[in-house]
UniProtKB/TrEMBL annotation:
This is Aminoglycoside phosphotransferase. Residues 29-83 form the Aminoglycoside phosphotransferase domain. It comes from Candidatus Woesebacteria bacterium GW2011_GWA2_40_7. GO terms for molecular function: transferase activity. Keywords: Transferase. It comes from the Bacteria.
Amino acid sequence: MSLDLGSEKLQTLDKDLEHIDRCISLNLLKRRNFKLATGKTPEDVLDYLTNERPLFSSQTLVHGDFCMPNIIIDENNFGLIDVGD
């Protein structure tokens, strides 16, 4: 099953990793804040994500509106809805 929301709505993990790499190269991140928040450098995190790439699926939809009306529970399974603007 595929979900077609249009290319402007969905990005692949590969595109996200490329974007992160560009941001690091252009020094767009507040490195000190990043290190304080994560305990790692941006390069460390990018290296981890790149090296562990097979563990992450580009078919994953990340849900940004996590709240009770958007959660479906059925026995031992759950899902999230509300794919809107």
